[in-house]
């Protein structure tokens, strides 16, 4: 009897022991020791069996964008966006950058209103700075160590894509026309999850993003002496925010992407995770939401030591593809009615085209 009472007391104590409350994402990101980019299984939104399940996943996406501005989306596989298509697109991108420089320069980027064509190493200097003289100095002292190829909607009535000759890159154009369209379709779905998470109605953004006013950027970061990336202000891509609604980043396993903790201003690696896409908020979505959703600074530097061989003198080549999602060109971006807060709109109304062209003029020579 005595033993039974002791056992009952122990069971009672365990049952009613105060449970330690798990920290929320908002609490975790306040400290660098616990800061992380959330992983959200997006198939739970696409394939949800109930509205409640869709709403739960939508809220996970919105919470990540509120607190961090970044998320890893897992299981985003669509009919034409799968591991094979991503690998194929990366191979086509890598083959393009192997072309002779004289061939690539025939496709040279020319106009911020077009934002199409080849950008040679050192021409772009991404930054939050807007003073032309200061940007020119930064470009000389610490140029971005990358080259890129910019692709827009192929049916644009004014601006045309610049494609390499089929004889040099036979699969390039069809590959990236398909990839562009698939990324747009994913953009629509993720924006629907955001609209639901913000209680706007799932299809709120549909007619504001249907013109596919996007930019597909193929990126090559050539191998570089690791010591050079340790110089003052030097990076493969300097600290910056993106311009549109969302950015999809398809990165290889080399690493080097870093995200700033909005609360402490310290940078943390966005370590490549197999089977995920890195997605971040851009300036126009932040303006739309009155900064409820964060457009977070990020940069590309040397990978963390754990991803490099010991005492590596050279940082290996890095490949990535970024799809910059934008609202329609003439869309009016002003504070959403349920994001006014107690102080009202932080930003004046702006159109997509005016904002993006203005930022591009600042960053290119």
TrEMBL record:
<dbReference type="InterPro" id="IPR005123">
    <property type="entry name" value="Oxoglu/Fe-dep_dioxygenase_dom"/>
</dbReference>
<comment type="similarity">
    <text>Belongs to the iron/ascorbate-dependent oxidoreductase family.</text>
</comment>
<dbReference type="InterPro" id="IPR050231">
    <property type="entry name" value="Iron_ascorbate_oxido_reductase"/>
</dbReference>
<keyword id="KW-0408">Iron</keyword>
<dbReference type="GO" id="GO:0016491">
    <property type="term" value="F:oxidoreductase activity"/>
</dbReference>
<dbReference type="Pfam" id="PF14226">
    <property type="entry name" value="DIOX_N"/>
</dbReference>
<protein>
    <submittedName>
        <fullName>Related to gibberellin 20-oxidase</fullName>
    </submittedName>
</protein>
<dbReference type="InterPro" id="IPR044861">
    <property type="entry name" value="IPNS-like_FE2OG_OXY"/>
</dbReference>
<keyword id="KW-0560">Oxidoreductase</keyword>
<dbReference type="InterPro" id="IPR026992">
    <property type="entry name" value="DIOX_N"/>
</dbReference>
<keyword id="KW-0479">Metal-binding</keyword>
<dbReference type="InterPro" id="IPR027443">
    <property type="entry name" value="IPNS-like_sf"/>
</dbReference>
<dbReference type="Pfam" id="PF03171">
    <property type="entry name" value="2OG-FeII_Oxy"/>
</dbReference>
<feature type="domain" description="Fe2OG dioxygenase">
    <location>
        <begin position="212"/>
        <end position="327"/>
    </location>
</feature>
<dbReference type="GO" id="GO:0046872">
    <property type="term" value="F:metal ion binding"/>
</dbReference>
């Amino acid at each position: 009897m005595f033993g039974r009472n002791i056992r009952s007391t122990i069971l009672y104590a365990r049952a009613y022991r105060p449970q330690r409350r798990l920290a929320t994402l908002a609490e975790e990101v306040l400290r660098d020791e616990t800061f992380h980019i959330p992983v959200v299984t997006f198939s739970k939104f696409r394939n949800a069996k109930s509205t409640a399940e869709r709403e739960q996943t939508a809220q996970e996406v919105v919470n990540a964008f509120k607190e961090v501005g970044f998320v890893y989306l897992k299981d985003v596989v669509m009919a034409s966006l799968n591991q094979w298509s991503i690998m194929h697109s990366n191979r086509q991108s890598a083959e393009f950058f192997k072309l002779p420089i004289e061939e690539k320069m025939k496709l040279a980027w020319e106009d911020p209103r077009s934002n199409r064509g080849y950008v040679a190493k050192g021409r772009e200097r991404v930054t939050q700075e807007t003073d032309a003289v200061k940007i020119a100095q930064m470009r000389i002292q610490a140029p971005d160590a990358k080259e890129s190829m910019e692709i827009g909607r192929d049916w644009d009535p004014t601006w045309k894509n610049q494609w390499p000759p089929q004889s040099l890159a036979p699969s390039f154009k069809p590959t990236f026309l398909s990839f562009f369209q698939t990324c747009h379709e994913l953009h629509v779905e993720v924006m629907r999850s955001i609209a639901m998470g913000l209680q706007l109605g799932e299809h709120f953004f549909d007619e504001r993003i249907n013109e596919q006013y996007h930019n597909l950027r193929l990126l090559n970061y050539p191998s570089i002496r690791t010591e050079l990336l340790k110089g003052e202000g030097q990076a493969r891509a300097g600290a910056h925010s993106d311009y549109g609604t969302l950015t999809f980043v398809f990165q290889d396993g080399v690493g080097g992407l870093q995200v700033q903790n909005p609360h402490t201003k310290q940078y943390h690696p966005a370590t490549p995770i197999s089977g995920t896409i890195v997605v971040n908020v851009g300036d126009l979505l932040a303006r739309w939401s009155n900064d409820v959703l964060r457009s977070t600074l990020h940069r590309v530097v040397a990978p963390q030591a754990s991803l490099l061989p010991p005492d590596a003198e050279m940082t290996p080549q890095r490949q990535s593809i970024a799809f910059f999602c934008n609202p329609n060109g003439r869309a009016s971006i002003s504070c959403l009615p349920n994001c006014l807060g107690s102080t009202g709109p932080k930003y004046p109304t702006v159109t997509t085209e005016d904002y993006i062209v203005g930022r591009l003029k600042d960053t290119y020579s």
